[in-house]
Amino acid sequence: MGEVPADLAGTAAGVFKMSSMVGGALGVAVLSAITRGRTTAEAADAFAASGLSPEQIDRAHQALVNSSSFEQAIASLPAGLADVVTHAAVAAFTRGLAVTMVVLAVLVLVVCGLVALLWPRHARAATPTTTSTSAPDTR
Predict the structure, then answer these.
(1) pLDDT tens digits, residue range 62-84?
(2) How far apart are CA 133 and CA 136, in angstroms?
């Protein structure tokens, strides 16, 4: 912003604010999609590993998909199945979120590396500062 002419400072501030808002929204959307995809994959694995029959897995999946909340979905399942589904869903969400955080950490490191490599390095012109310590010439 320091290199923008004064008459364009308002425009530059607006563009900066808009791009940060769009970038933030896009970042949240991408991370949410990664989390959702990993959680769904982990849930399928967790349900299969929990010893549920294919029929019970299908019933749990339908309850989760057709409900407006997790509590409503669990309430629609039999008690034993509800406990297994709850534990599997929590484990799947935790693993999905962990994978997303690892992806985010790697992405941040890559971006930091790119910024370090590509950021323009301005050679600061050494302006000599002359300080005169001698007495002024009074001839």
Answers:
(1) 777 777 788 888 888 888 888 88
(2) 9
Averaged pLDDT, 30-36: 90
pTM > 0.85: yes or no: no
Do 92 and 46 touch, CB atoms closer than 8 A?
Answer: yes
> Does residue 3 lie within any of the structural domains?
no
Degrees to nearest 5, angle at CA 35 with 74 and 73: 10
Domain that holds residue 44: 16-112
Work out the pLDDT band at 54, boundaries 50, 70, 90: confident
Q: Are 60 and 52 in contact (CB under 8 A)?
A: yes
Residue 47 inside a domain? The answer is yes
- Number of structural domains (the chain) is 1
φ/ψ of residue 132, rounded to 5: -90, 120
- Cα distance from N-terminal residue to C-terminal residue, the chain: 50
